[in-house]
Amino acid sequence: MQQKNNHIRHIKNERLETIKPGYRGNKTVNGRFANGDELFNPDFSQVLKWQLSRNPQRDQKKLDHYTPHVQEGKDFLHDERDMLVWLGHSSFFIRLNGITFLTDPALYDIPMLKRRVGTPCAPEDLRNIDFLLLSHAHRDHLDKKSLQTVYGANPQVKALAPLRAGDILRSINPHLPYQEAGWYQKYDLVPDSVEVYFMPASHWHRRGLTDMNKVLWGSFVLKTPTHTLYFAGDTGFAPHFEEIEELLGPMDVCLMPVGAYKPSFLMQKSHLSPHEAVKAYNLLHGGTFIPMHYGTYDLSDEPPSEPVRLLEQIAASGMLQGLRIPAIGEAVLLQDLI
Length: 338
Description:
Layout: E1 8-11, E2 17-18, E3 26-29, E4 32-33, H1 44-52, H2 58-63, E5 83-88, E6 91-96, E7 99-103, E8 131-133, H3 144-153, E9 158-162, H4 166-172, E10 178-181, E11 185-186, E12 195-199, E13 219-223, E14 228-231, H5 240-248, E15 253-257, H6 264-267, H7 274-283, E16 288-292, H8 306-316, E17 331-333
Parallel strand pairs: 7-8, 8-9, 9-10, 14-15, 15-16
Antiparallel strand pairs: 1-3, 2-11, 3-4, 5-6, 5-17, 6-7, 11-12, 12-13, 13-14
Domain Metallo-beta-lactamase: 101-294
InterPro entries: Metallo-B-lactamas, RibonucZ/Hydroxyglut_hydro
Protein name: Metallo-beta-lactamase domain-containing protein
């Protein structure tokens, strides 16, 4: 029987600027995106192995009732200063040079996962949002109900999304404007006062039964004349951190995922442990380190307080100079981070 040849293409948004010299676009193999040159298909026998094995920290996790503190209120929405506000998980409100962004909105319970902690204000109170930054389409990052609520309260909002995310967005609301980008591309919808780049991450995509890796994933860099901010999305540890720093310079603020890293045999290729996140931050020549992707949903085996505890230990050892752990809803002013 003749083996079917792999069909390889490199794709990007041909209308957008690509900042990596000579980059042909994201590699696809038979229509499925790769991590750089590597085609990563998560082995779901590993998921079965995880489900059937005993968590060595099960008892510790059962007794650990940690949740991030929530600072309730919505004053940050009316404050004109540059800032960022964690909304839980990987969702941030960001204001830079008068432009407002919302990252990976997951503001409710999501399918099969209850939210363990609230939001600082009702999701429908999140108004005057200019852009959605969507790193990838896993349901804890691109949530249908959250997007419908945000668009309903912000008819002016536009989505900055990965390649081939458009069909998902149209199915959620056919009127939501969006622009797709590949890695190393600069979106052109954003006013000149903020530059927004879609950059690599080491991850994967699956939202349904037949769409494995058919939508791209990535990270974001936001640049103004005074600040460079990195939002890592979901990622495993890989060489892209050094490359991002080489292309776009030291990162003044790094929003880094630090949860859902155990068991490592299942999580290591797609999530960062706290130690790996700090290593990546140092490769980015980071200034302030702000953790995310912990404490909001129960996704993995580590106890909920472990990521913060490990980060504090790493900072005390001198390996992490700029740790800042804000409460959900706490406004972090960029002028205070200089």
